[in-house]
Design a protein that fits this description.
17 helices, seven-stranded mixed β-sheet, 19 strands, single chain, alpha/beta, binds flavin-adenine dinucleotide, eight-stranded mixed β-sheet, FAD/NAD(P)-binding domain
């Protein structure tokens, strides 16, 4: 999980090839039964667990990884480095979600990014990433008619999820801005990095996410993901949610058509309901087993397409080294024209750079840069170890070359360069094909209807693009908890009636 490019950069060998045995029993304190078991601590799982805990339910959350947060996570490296995985930017709606369903302290730490830049052969500029600024750019830089731009934004805003409109993103773009590949790039490239959207995806999913961003720009969490997840854990504990890491759920127990618990670490833990934050396909095919679903439902889930995976290059500056403020988020590409597919190219030309200055973690003086590229599992999965190391080193070298273009001299200031690939994401999340953003649109329907197939079985996690990304995942956790709560109330009523 590494690559070296600077003479001073340490070549880090991660342990993606196996798990070390633990010195303790991670399930030592687990009880025999809970009201709800949550599988997975992504933002959807954590948020659902918190909402249910606040409602007074006894909740146990099992996470297979040693850390909590799912893809909203971080890691530390020798030399004082801390790297965030997916803290690049999310819409303002996260403030409301955190205020309502987490804490005021968490909500108040969500701050707007100061600067976002695009740099590609078609255009270069800084943007506030709002409807007002995009309108000015579309009219002033791209020469689009103001009335057309207004109509485009109004169209997206008016899109309603329940209209079942199957128009694709490309069709909408062509209708409003025919033949304008440069405009299509502006409108889609940043969203593709946040949730894997592509030109052939339904416009409705794109429209919702894009409009969310356009309402007020791009936000981040001041203090880093480690602080965020720490604050979330404290709140979960206040709400008596019991958290277990290094605890992989092997099976969801189903009796008489209802989910009644899980097998975790070889033990049975009973529950009134089970909420899975693992991938949709994993939940149905591996954890429950297709035999518990109608055949057409199980087949439908197998046919749901996965979203792409990612590669990242983590670059840490030596203690005391600095770089001038460049921007917070840089959409950088040397590719002449835009198309969705090329964003995942094995030796791609497009990437985002997230710059982490001391303002990101006001408690630290360190600087880091993380480059993210969308990626295909198939390009990385079959490589021999030797090819794998070679390709990671190439990715690191290409990335550093590109970063030098924006920040001359930065390479000499780095003492840690490390690469993650779809294999890394697959290993740490157990998501099939290391998917970064769950499933394509059709997955949403199955995810929402899981409990109609197996009573008491719910899903919350990245599906359908809409429920992906930090905001989408957290909000889906709230939605799933709101469905699960009356189910538990129904069970309690039934139990009381039986006891009478
Ligand atoms: C490189 C990258 C960049 C991103 N950038 C952005 C961005 O800029 N903005 C944005 O909004 N979003 C971004 N995202 C997406 C965002 O991070 C995710 O959409 C979101 O965090 C997903 O949350 P989730 O709840 O779906 O679950 P996940 O984060 O996928 O977590 C699922 C959890 O379930 C656990 N699990 C799975 N199986 C089991 C099991 N059997 N037993 C126990 N635990 C299990 C996994 O270990 C994992 O912790 C990015 C993602 C990546 C990879």
């Amino acid at each position: 999980m590494s690559g070296r490019s600077s003479p001073r950069a340490k070549y880090y060998r991660g342990s993606t090839d196996g798990r070390r045995p633990l010195g303790h029993d991670p399930l030592a304190k687990v009880r025999a039964a809970y009201d709800v078991v949550v599988i997975g601590s992504g933002l959807a799982g954590l948020t659902a667990a918190n909402v249910l805990g606040k409602l007074g339910h006894r909740v146990a959350l099992f996470e297979q990884h040693y850390n909590f947060g799912g893809l909203a996570t971080w890691f530390k490296r020798r030399g004082g480095h801390v790297f965030d995985i997916s803290l690049h930017g999310f819409p303002v709606g996260m403030i409301k979600t955190c205020r309502r369903h987490w804490t005021l302290e968490i909500a108040q730490r969500i701050v707007r990014l100061d600067s976002i830049r695009f740099d590609n052969p078609q255009f270069r500029f800084e943007t506030a990433f709002t409807r007002a600024d995009f309108t000015e750019k579309l009219v002033g830089v791209f020469g689009a008619e103001r009335s057309r731009v207004e109509e485009f934004f109004a169209h997206l805003r008016a899109m309603n999820f329940y209209d079942a409109n199957r128009e694709t993103v490309a069709e909408v773009f062509e209708r409003f801005f025919p033949g304008r590949n440069d405009i299509h790039r502006l409108l889609l490239e940043p969203i593709a990095y946040a949730n894997g959207s592509a030109l052939d995806d339904p416009a409705i999913a794109y429209g919702i996410v894009f409009s969310n961003f356009m309402s007020s720009g791009v936000y981040t969490f001041s203090g880093g993901t480690d602080l965020l997840v720490g604050l979330m854990r404290a709140e979960l504990e206040r709400n008596r949610v019991e958290l277990f890491s290094n605890a992989e759920v092997e099976r969801i127990l189903v009796e008489n058509g209802a989910a009644v618990g899980v097998v975790v670490g070889g033990r049975e833990v009973r529950a009134g309901a089970v909420l899975s934050n693992a991938s949709l396909g994993t939940t149905v095919q591996r954890l429950v087993g297709p035999g518990h679903f109608e055949a057409s439902f199980a087949q439908g889930v197998s046919a749901v397409r996965l979203n792409n995976s990612s590669c990242q290059v983590y670059m840490g500056l030596t203690e005391g080294a600095t770089i001038p403020f460049v921007t917070d988020l840089l959409f950088s590409s040397s590719r002449e024209r835009f198309d969705s597919r090329s964003l995942c190219d094995f030796h791609g030309e497009s990437r985002t750079f997230s710059f982490y200055y001391p303002k990101t973690r006001p408690q630290s003086e360190r600087y880091a840069v993380v480059s993210s590229t969308n990626a295909n599992w198939g390009d990385w999965a079959g490589l021999s170890q030797e090819q794998y190391e070679r390709e990671k080193a190439k990715l690191a070298a290409d990335t550093l070359r590109e970063l030098e273009r924006h920040v001359p001299g930065v390479t000499s200031k780095l003492d840690h360069v490390e690469v993650a690939t779809p294999r890394t994401f697959g290993f740490y999340t157990q998501h099939p094909e290391g998917t970064s953003f769950g499933t394509k649109f059709e997955g949403l329907e199955y995810s929402l209807k899981l409990h109609e197939q197996v009573r008491g079985l719910f899903h919350a996690g990245s599906v359908g693009i809409i429920m992906s990304g930090w905001l989408g995942a957290a909000n889906y956790g709230v939605i799933a908890a709101a469905k699960l709560d009356p189910y538990l109330a129904g069970l309690a009523t039934l139990a009381a009636a039986k006891g009478r």
